[in-house]
Amino acid sequence: MPHPSPSPAAGSAEPQRRARRKNARPGELLAAALDLFVEKGYAATRVEEVAARAGVSKGTLFLYFPSKEELFKAVVRENIAGRFAEWQRELDSFEGDSEALLRRCYTVWWERIGSTKAAGITKLMCSEARNFPALAHFYHQEVMQPGTALVRCILERGIARGEIRPLDLDTGVYLVLSPMMFLMFWQNTMAGCLPARTDDTSETAPCASMPFSPEAYLEAQIDNLLRGLRP
C-alpha cells in the first residue's frame, strides 16, 4: 500500500523551524559573547568559546560576524549604543520637571543597563582600552559621546526652564554620570568577592553581594545631586 503524501503543512514545518532557528542565531551569539566578554575580558575570550556556548560552529559564527572585533562591536550596539535613539525620544517627549526627569534617567539606566550584564562592558573597556585603541575609539564614539550628549540635553533643558542653576556643562555632565560609573565598577569588581547580604532578597547577581542597596545608593545620589543643582 502506498504511503500517504505528507500534508503541505507538515512538509513546510521543518523549513520554517530551520528559518526561525537561523534568524535566532545572531541573538544567541551576541548573548553568548556578552557573557564571555564580561566574564573573561576581551583579550582572553576566543571566538571558538563563543560559538560553543551558542551551540554553533566557529564557521557559523563567522557567517554573521567576520572577526572578534566586529562581534564585540555588535555586542556593544545591541546592549548599549543601539538604545540611545530610544532614550532621546523618551527625553524629547518627557513632560515632567527636571527633578522627575533626573530620577527617571537613573531608574531607566539601572533597569536597562546598570543591573544587567551590559554594565560589565564599561569595566571591560576601562581595563583593556590601552591595549585595543581601535575598540576604545569605537566605544568613545558610540557610547561615551552620545551618553554625555544625552545628559547634557537633560541639564540644558533644566537650565532653560529655570529648574537647574547655570553650570559648566562640560564637567557638569559627570556629576550625573559618576554614580552610574561607580555602581558599574563596584558591581563588576568587588561585589562578586564579598559575602552575600543576609537582608538582600534580590535575584540580581552579583548585586546580592553588595554591602548596600544599589537602589538606595542611587536615591541618595539623586537627592544630593538635586540639592546641588537647584537654583
TrEMBL record:
Keywords: DNA-binding, Transcription, Transcription regulation. It comes from Comamonas antarctica. InterPro entries: Homeodomain-like_sf (IPR009057), HTH-type_TetR-like_transc_reg (IPR050109), HTH_TetR (IPR001647), Tet_transcr_reg_TetR-rel_C_sf (IPR036271), TetR_C (IPR011075). Residues 23-83 form the HTH tetR-type domain. The lineage of its organism: Bacteria, Pseudomonadati, Pseudomonadota, Betaproteobacteria, Burkholderiales. Residues 1-24 are annotated as: Disordered. Residues 46-65 bind DNA. This is TetR/AcrR family transcriptional regulator. It holds the Pfam family TetR_N. Coiled coil: none annotated. GO terms for molecular function: DNA-binding transcription factor activity; transcription cis-regulatory region binding.
